[in-house]
Each structure stands twice: as C-alpha cells, then as structure tokens.
Amino acid sequence: MPNLGAGVSRQTLSSATWAGTSRLCAIMAQVVSRGPNNLESWKPLAQRADCILDSFNAKHLAQLVVYISKSPFRDSGFINRLRARAMATATECDALACGGLLYGLQKLGACDITLVNHFRDVMLSKLDSAKTCYPLILLLHTYANARDADACMAILNKVSSSLDTLVPKGIEIAKAAIEHNFEPTHNVSQVFRDICSRHALVKKSL
C-alpha cells in the first residue's frame, strides 16, 4: 500500500513526461495535496502541460489552471498561454469549468475585464449546470471583483436555490469580494446578507 502521508514519488513525477491531459491533472492533484509542492516538482509538470495545451478540453483546462494557481510555478509566458486557451474553450465550459478558469486565472494575475466579459454570456447561460454552490461562489468572487452587479445578482439567485450546499468557506470567499466592491446598501450586498441569514436558518434546522 502507498504511504499517503508521503510526497509524490519521483517515479510518478517523471511519468508526467508521457502523460495525457487526464493523467497529468491527476498527478498535479496529488502534488497539491501531498507535495512536494516546489518548483522542482512543478517545472516538468508545467512543461508537459504547455506541450499538450491544445489537447486540453474545458474540464481538464479548468483543473490545470486551479492546480497551477496553487503551485509556486509562475512563468508569465505559460500563464498567458493558459489564458489564451481559456478564451478559446469558453463556449465549451459549464459552470464548474467557468468558475475554475476565472478564479484560477485571477489568482495567477491573468484575469482582466476582457477575459471576464468574454466568459460572461456563457457563464450566465450555464448557471443551471452547477450541481453545488462551489462553482457559483468562484464565479461570484470573480464578478464581484469586476463590479458586475447584474452578473452577481444572477449568480446569487442561483445560490439562493442551493443553500444546502453552501459551506462556511464559500460564504467567507463571497463576503470578502462583495464587501470590498459594493457598498452595504447596494442590492448585491443586501441580497447576499439575506442569503447568509437564510443559510443559517437552514443549517440550524438540519
């Protein structure tokens, strides 16, 4: 049995040289959770991702971006290519992929208003594909930081119907973005406070 407390083995890391998109994302997930989360580990992983970047579909690209955002690897050229690939796959995205791509690229410093607006219509049309509040919170964080009140209201409406899947960490992420970008009297702030109050009642009744 593998020692789950140990870091990812050199053998596994070296196998990334021939990995496809799914396998590469699986290795990255292991490195994020188990380590070693250092440049020596991430450089060959990122190089392999860069080599096969055009093969990533929206789902695996979103995973890739999120994992890279949790790593110490920050090559500007690679990050720009991730952004370009995200732009190219936008129409393929469901809510989870939209949320992962935008949130991850934001953490990588590569999410500007052009990218946010590029995803906006797709994102709004795919909100119903969200099975939990997780992708909705990622999207809310992005569009609150863009101060797009209409988009935020649409996302909050969907969050309101999925309160049983809203977790405290999600509330914290959304709260920080909303409080930073909207006045307390703004509709977005008021609706969010109402959702928080209703969420507390839902959890209390469980």
Question: What can be said about this structure in brief?
Answer:
With 206 residues, the chain is an all-alpha fold. The protein has helices spanning 10-14, 21-34, 39-51, 58-69, 76-89, 95-107, 113-125, 134-145, 149-160, 168-181, 187-205. The longest helix has 19 residues, at 187-205.
Describe the structure.
- The structure is a single chain.
- With 206 residues, the protein is mostly helical.
- The model has no long low-confidence stretch (mean pLDDT 94).
- The protein contains 11 helices and no strands.
- 68% of the residues lie in helices and 0% in strands.
Features:
206 residues; mainly alpha; 2 domains
Q: Can you tell me the overall shape?
A: globular
Integer tally of domains: 2
Beta strand %: under 5%
Measured between the Cα atoms of the first and last residue, the distance is: 38 Å
**Could you name the ranges where pLDDT drops below 50 across 5 or more consecutive residues?**
none
What is the makeup of the main sheet? none
Percentage of residues in helical conformation: 55-70%
The helix-and-strand class reads mainly alpha
Number of helices: 11
Mean pLDDT across all amino acids: 94
How many individual β-strands? 0
Rg over C-alpha atoms, rounded to the nearest angstrom = 18 Å
